[in-house]
Amino acid sequence: MSQLQEVQQAVHEVAAGTAILLDVRGEDEWNDVRAEGAIHWQLSRLRADDLPDIPGESKVYVYCASGERAEEAKDILIAHGFPEVINIGGLSDWQQAGGEIE
User: What is the distance between the alpha carbons of residues 56 and 3, in angstroms, rounded to a whole number?
Assistant: First the structure.
């Protein structure tokens, strides 16, 4: 599956309510623009073992601006027992795959 196809799948699953979308960017970035339906949880919180209140069995898609912070967030969530965490890259990847922003 290509990166675009994977992000298109994320767009579909988040819209259907079958997956969680986690934005790990900073507060200013979040306030400027964000993916519709995303939960904001800064990477710094994950680094401090402050985890979002989402069911542990949830499929989680993670994004930031470029994908670098999302990759670190993915590793942290997996280390804390989340079974399926996927880095979809940056917000622009979400938009290119047809994801709405707000």
Answer: 25
